[in-house]
Amino acid sequence: MSAVGLVFTNIHDQNIPDLTRKRTMASVPFGCRYRLIDFTLSNMVNSGITKVGVITHNNYQSLLDHLGTGKDWDLARRSGGIKLLPPFIASHAGMGANKLYTTRLEAMMGAMDFISRCNEDHIVLSDCDAISNIDLSDVIKSHKENGADITIVTTKVDTDTFEISAGSAVITSDENNRISDVVHYSRRIHGIKEISTNIIVANRDYLQNVVSDAIAHGYTSFYSDVLDRNLLRANYFVYHYSGFYAQINSLAGYYSCNMKLLEKGIGDALFSQPNRPILTKVRNSAPTRYTGDAKVKNSLIADGCLIEGTVENSIIFRGVKVGKGSVVKNSILMQDTVVGNNVNLGCVVTDKNVLIKDERTLSGHSTLPFYISKGTMI
Amino acid sequence: MFKKKECIAMLLAGGQGSRLYALTQKTAKPAVPFGGKYRIIDFPLSNCINSGIDTVGVLTQYQPLVLNEYIGNGLPWDLDRAFGGVKILPPYQGNKTADWYKGTANAIYQNLEFINRYDAEYVLILSGDHIYKMDYSKMLDYHIEKGADCTIAVLDVPIEEASRFGIMSANEDNSIFKFTEKPKEPDSTLASMGIYIFNKKKLEKYLIEDNADPNSSNDFGKNIIPTMLSAGEKMFAYQFEGYWKDVGTIQSLWEANMDLLGEHPAFTLYNEDWRIFARHFAAAPQYLGEDASVKNSIITEGCEIYGTVENSVIFTGAKVMEGATVKDSVVMSGSVIEAGARVEYSILDENVTVGKNASVGVSKENSKGITVIGADVVVPEGKVIGDGEMISDNI
């Protein structure tokens, strides 16, 4: 199997403006010790992909810090490995000078140099707003068997309960998995729908051609201009993925997605797939210490924490301290949050390095969690 | 091409650690797990990199597989370097001779060529048996400042324990005038920590002489140090203050793990400026279930706790199922305590399974000794393993 990965790190930033004010969607912290890009990169690495282009747009310092050389994903390579693709801005007028890409299609055009220099047959495109543990080698296998030009990984969701991102593509396919329609709904939809996970396998040459062609025509959308226009002429297939899938598209969604990890079986589906570990940056935190007064129930906790109080139904990131007499319920406390003594927290999301002093009581609701931004002292 | 290094470290990691019994059946002592996610060797290696020493030779001999695999290219400690870094130095077959390492001094003697490649001025000798955090660069400064030929790190120990150690007697300026290995009637309380800094030239001279002496047991404590002292070389004691623990016995290994617990732990790993690095395996965060009760314990990533854990150290990926109890124990990576089982005052090595409703050890108060279960052992359902037993094979 020869395939190269291409990751879009900023595409859905606007969906959770609070969390992406100072970072990319890809570097949004998730599930105690991960960043969203970890799922995308791990899926690629676990499927044998050893060359990954990472397309950035803006605010990508935190992402660079997280990725480093790529060694934590085994992507620090002499040949291949992580290739960062920061925005390419033309320096001369007439070529779109000083214009940053705004759509997936333009982003791909910006990465065309990278794509054209690869010699792999296939390219796997993926966004960073989705959480899954998928075997991409099986997707590529089915792509080849179908003789497809493009294969889109889809998953069935009940749009009445699963909040899909604005602009998600709903895909219809026939019994042979051939795509028959691609629709972008801008309004709220209902019922069970097959949506695109934005994980796409394409023949590299084919993709290069259609993207160049679309740009030459002044098109802007990959789904409605490229896919939809070529549907009848090209071989587009779907791959039905039925494993764990979540999309982060609002703060409430971010909250509920984290909380889902506490449900029985979800953690295993995501983290305990044989030979498919989720890799992340190693921080070398010491194990977490619980004192004699600690009371912890139904919670996921990272290493490096000190728990002296009560924690229930919560997601606790690395290096968090919960002081004596404090009660933390239904909350997400990101890296290095310090909760003083006798504090009460309910449905709170603290960003990194938040300090909550003694005796404070803060509360939100699961549909509107109380978000406290990075570095705030309360 | 080699770059000159002012000081390189040689880490003696060939010891069997026979007093750890079941725990060192398949691994060398330095590779014995400690403190939730570490192995003993993480401490000297992390001390090295934190002290700015980036070239470390690790001398292995006994059961090296786990150790070699663990150290790998040194990446976890930032010791994967173009120049220097960590290098494994096993015994080898030479042109004329082929020898195992006959003693600590002989191991270094056989690797003088390694030391000379880096043209080191100073050589730091370490061992892989101790848990401590120490800035070796301060000791090196002291060594240079004193103009010493050899500096030995010492710890003030209670007089009643002194006969377990190599004991130093020093003048007011800390120059050593007497050294006795495990004295019956100690006349000083300065115990050698097994950490030495030598001027390379002197070290080389004495190692060559020692090797030529057929009556020598080729040991630093027994031969090199006494010989240098009687030859009138400048030897100084460097006093270390802080936590230091030899984990050569089951009892001391258990104690050292327990020293990480409590309101104010005797030894803390939570210091961002002096991190202890370890090789990590991608494990999920730890999960504490609805009925879990965890008190005064440390728990590591990948663990799943549904039962009760008290005064214990639980390593990466271990599981304590519903209704199971773990008390005053050390449970190493991948071990599973099935539902209703009970583990008290015990050390379980890696990947041990304690079957449903089985019981290992008795309460600390009523116990005569720590119960030890070796790696990969399965304790069958309902089985009772008594006080102080050492189990290394399936029963």
Task: Explain what you see.
Chain A has 378 residues and is α/β, with parallel strands linked by helices. Chain A has 2 domains: 3-271, Spore Coat Polysaccharide Biosynthesis Protein SpsA, Chain A; 289-372, Hexapeptide repeat proteins (UDP N-Acetylglucosamine Acyltransferase, domain 1, 3 Solenoid), CATH 2.160.10. In chain A, 21% of the residues lie in helices and 28% in strands. Chain A contains 9 helices and 28 strands. Chain A has helices spanning 36-46, 61-67, 104-110, 112-117, 136-145, 204-216, 222-230, 251-260, 266-271; strands at 3-8, 29-30, 34-35, 51-55, 81-85, 122-126, 130-132, 150-158, 169-173, 179-184, 192-203, 236-240, 245-247, 288-290, 295-297, 299-301, 306-307, 310-312, 315-316, 321-322, 327-329, 332-333, 338-339, 344-346, 348-350, 355-356, 361-363, 370-372. In chain A, the strands form 7 sheets. A 7-stranded mixed β-sheet of chain A has the order 5-4-1-6-11-8-12, sandwiched between helices. A 5-stranded parallel β-sheet of chain A has the order 14-17-20-23-26, with no helix packed on it. Chain A starts with a strand and ends in a 6-residue tail after the last strand. Chain B contains 8 helices and 31 strands. The mean pLDDT of chain B is 94. Chain B is of the alpha/beta class and 395 residues long. In chain B, β2 (33-34) and β3 form a beta hairpin. In chain B, 18% of the residues lie in helices and 28% in strands. In chain B, the strands form 6 sheets. In chain B, strands 1, 4, 5, 6, 8, 9, 10, 11 and 12 form a 9-stranded mixed β-sheet that branches. A 6-stranded parallel β-sheet of chain B has the order 14-17-20-23-26-29, with no helix packed on it. A 6-stranded parallel β-sheet of chain B has the order 15-18-21-24-27-30, with no helix packed on it. Classes of the chains: A alpha/beta (378), B alpha/beta (395). Chains A and B meet through α9, β14, β15 and β16 of A and β14, β15, β16 and β19 of B. β16 (299-301) of chain A pairs antiparallel with β14 (286-288) of chain B, so a sheet runs across the interface.
